Amino acid sequence: MNQNRRELLRIATVMGLAITAGILKPGMALAADWNASGFDAKSLDDALKAIGASGAAVSADISVTGPDIAENGAVVPVTVTSNAPKTEYMAILVEKNPNPLSAAFTIPEGTEAVIGTRVKMGGTSNVHALVKADGKWLIASKEIKVTLGGCGG
C-alpha cells in the first residue's frame, strides 16, 4: 500500500512539473474525448457507429503490427502506425472480444502518429486499426491467432 502511494505521488509530481513547464496542458492529462458508448458496444459495427466511423475506408496508409500467433491473449502487443496526413484519432478494435473497442487515442497536431500498447484478446480475431485523418475515417486489419484466451477463454 505504501509503495502505491509513493508511485501515485511520483506520477502526480511529474505531471505537475510537465504542466508547469508548459509541456502538457491540463486538458491533455485528462481523457477529454472519452466515449463510453464506444467502449460499451458489444459488436464491431456498434462500436464503429458509436465512434462515428461507420463506412471507414480500407487504407494502405494505416498499418497494424502484432504477433501472428500470441501465446497469451491477456497481453498481446499491438502497434498502429498512420502515414495519413493530419491524423487526429487512432483506435484499436478486437473484433471477437466481448467489447471490441480496446483503446482510443487523440493525436495532437504535429505528433508522430504511432501508438503501441498491449490488448487483451479472448481468442483468435481480426485486430482493426481505426484512424481519423483530415476528417476521413480509415481502417486496416490484421488477424492474430491466440492460443490461450485472455477474456475468460
Structure in words:
By secondary structure, this protein is an alpha+beta fold. The chain has three helices and nine strands; from the N terminus they run αααβββββββββ. The protein has helices at 2-20, 36-40, 44-51; strands at residues 57-58, 62-65, 69-70, 76-82, 87-94, 101-106, 114-119, 125-133, 136-146. Strands 1, 3, 5, 6, 8 and 9 form a six-stranded mixed sheet that branches. Strands 2-4-7 form a three-stranded antiparallel sheet, with no helix packed on it. It is globular. The model has no long low-confidence stretch (mean pLDDT 86).
Q: What count of helical segments does DSSP give? A: 3
Please provide the count of β strands.
9
How large a portion of the residues is in β-strands, by DSSP E?
35-45%
Separation of the first and last Cα atoms: 31 Å
Radius of gyration: 17 Å
**If you average the pLDDT, what whole number results?**
86
Give the % helix: 10-25%
Helix-strand sequence: HHHEEEEEEEEE
Low-confidence parts lasting 5 or more residues at pLDDT below 50?
none
Largest sheet: 6 strands, mixed
Overall shape: globular
Q: What class do helices, strands and sheet pairing give?
A: alpha+beta
